[in-house]
Amino acid sequence: MFEINLKKLVVAATAITALSAGAAAAQEACSNYTVQDGDTLATISIAAYGTSNYQPIFNANRNIISNPSNLEPGLVLALPCEDGSLPNGLSAQDLIAAAEARNANNKASNVYEPPVKILAGGNYAPFSDEGLSGGGLLVRLASTALSRGGNNREHSVSFVNDWGSHLDTLLPLGAFDVGLGWYIPDCSNRSYEWSAETTRRCNDFDSTVSVYDVVIGFYTLPDSKYAEARSFEDFKGARLCRMDAWFTHDLEEQGVFEPNITMVRPISAAECLDAVLTGTADVASFEVQLAADAMSEMGLTPKDIVENPFVNTIASQRIIAHRSNPFGKQYIAMLNKGLNEMRESGEWYDIVSDTLREHNEKMNAASN
Length: 368
Prior knowledge:
Layout: H1 3-21, E1 31-34, H2 41-49, H3 55-60, E2 76-79, H4 92-102, E3 116-120, H5 137-145, E4 155-159, H6 163-170, E5 178-183, H7 196-204, E6 205-207, E7 212-220, E8 239-241, H8 249-253, E9 262-264, H9 269-278, E10 283-287, H10 288-298, E11 306-307, E12 313-322, H11 328-345, H12 347-367
Helix pairs in contact: 4-12, 5-11, 5-12
């Protein structure tokens, strides 16, 4: 349901640049690039931005990229500018300000409605972090959605860093209405055997449409046999590291589960990368944005750890409400209306790119 207008946004940016200068011949930021045979999002990102973190390119072209590991030659990609805006477009900050001005006169209901209590976890930059403007990407999207799509609902945001308590107690007991930052599978897909955690997320919670699609990469030593794995079947027998309590439904869907593989479950992404470096794990798997951040903080380069260019998954972050909440479905419907409008207007992309710009500037400042 989000495809039409976001695709128009990317196509429009492509058309404007093509008319003025033709398709970009080089992989340069703030331009449009025609995919060549052998290109991957990672190689394009390295050439254009000097980083293998290609999530921003994926965000800008989400509706024309179906498989980040298999780009079709001839596909024209919009490569975002350094501030996150699309080629020949206004800055994200300008577009956000315009959207806020358009919605400044939304009328609230005359009937008292309690503020929606939003639950987020901290220290999860760029997704939810009190050190980022508006609380991070997901918090900004959720907060804005409650004042779009005909909504004008007051809300409060609380950060609780004990993520396990969100699903175990805080949402089930009604202490909060909706929770942010949760990867929820396609619960209509019963073609694979669900784990207990996947079953809980599908059976106990209602969720919005996808708020943010994340590319999940698979990272190995450069000389590992798994570095060139061409399919998930090739991971059979591997020791695969993903952080404790994190989702695994994307792996389950591809047949990557025990006893086919051995799971290694430390606490942090850095520990997973260290497990690969020290040989206690063969493969580490999590978000490409998080991988880039962790590698930067650890002083690692693609010479130390590489991303498999042939295999990845896409996971959807959604806003959830426990099914025992009598207003949960109402809140989910409200959020969906707001998110739909934001996708159609382009405000969704503006908020995402602005938050990633801020986050990356902080990461760069910390490393210098």
